[in-house]
Amino acid sequence: MTDQPGFTESWACRLCGKTPIVEVLSIPATPLANEFVPSQGLIQRKFPLSLTSCKCGAFQLRHAVDPVLLFKNYLYTTGSNPELVEHFGKAADMLAQRFTLRPPSNQPEGPYPGDIVVSLGSNDGTDLLGFKDRGLEVLGVEPCERLALMAREKGVKTQVGFFSKGFPLDVPRPPKLIICNNTFAHIADLGGVLDGVREQIDPLKGVFVFEVAWAKSMVEKGAFDAILYHEHLFTHTVTALRPFLEAHGLKLFDVEVIPTHGGSIRGYARVGGSSFASVFTRMDEEKASGLFRMKTWEGFAKRITNTKIDLHNRIQTVRWAKLNSGGTPVIAGYGAPAKLTPLCYALELGPAQIDYVVDDSLLKQGRFTPGLQIPVVPSERFFTEPPDLIVLFAWNIGPRMADKVRAMFEERGLKAPPMVTPFPEVSFL
Length: 429
Description:
Blueprint: E1 2-4, E2 7-9, E3 22-30, E4 47-53, E5 59-61, E6 63-65, H1 67-71, H2 82-98, E7 105-107, E8 110-112, E9 116-120, H3 126-133, E10 137-142, H4 145-153, E11 158-160, E12 177-181, H5 190-200, E13 207-213, H6 215-221, H7 224-227, H8 238-247, E14 251-258, E15 264-270, H9 277-288, H10 294-324, E16 331-334, H11 340-347, E17 356-358, E18 376-377, H12 381-384, E19 389-392, H13 398-411, E20 419-421, E21 427-428
């Protein structure tokens, strides 16, 4: 392991500790994906993006950026994503029923103090609202002070900090449920987090539930923007996670495949017990997919190149058509998720190809994309500078985004321009 200013370079697997780890995929160095800047011309530091593979089945970035740089001034808010708001509401209902989470109550046999739900990396508290609405005591742990404040404004109690072993959770008794949604891939010291979960959770009835992008789904979709992304230190497999959890005193007993972020898994772990068939089914699926063969990753790299060529050709066709008719071509993007940054660097999309990007987040509007510094603007720009083509950058919800854009234009009695998404292949919606 080598320390450099702002990041650590690892030559051993962060899960099993073994060497060597072998590079399987890389793209040019990029700025931090959420480092949207207030003005153009600012010089932004770039960090390497190289994915490695270990014989234990783990996939990890070789370089881990200092989490303070990544998360202390985080711009992304879960509550700005309608799909995730709906997803976490349904998840809260399901988990509360499955694990019989109960609010405080008076019963003939005596009062029940109520179950506690803790979220690690809780963002703006959206994933806890469904539990809170059921009368359950909730607590979020979030490293970004601004996001913690937003959560508190929603009535979600939130501590600021990075959770690990010894972290003083502000709860009166052990939580029955600890959740970690879309942050379990962000943490270099996952062992420390699991040790903290093991020491804090109810040892008899407690369940640890995490949601992460699944390596099998990401590779099948060609979703390199979700893999080669500084926040995602890991692209997880069940094959690697099962023994890793056991090494830290937790048994992975169930794994569900869920549709979020283009294909994810929801894992369930507890102290002791046995595993359901779902765990071994997912492991068999990973092996059968070719995920652990270098040939698969060589095909993945070629797919990135083909996507770049195809998308550039489509953009150029639209530009030439407009120029030949005597007009000025305008190409817009819709959606400025963090993964836009690695996507644009890998596909070589900059201000010469994309004139502006529309995003609904007030925190990003008026800023410029990391490194390439394409302006991020409100949707009104669609009508003051009408685009000839819209690239849907949040490809995992491409159809929903396309419907939303069409509705915007229909409200004004206008026809929406053509829209294209890069994944799972370059195609018009």
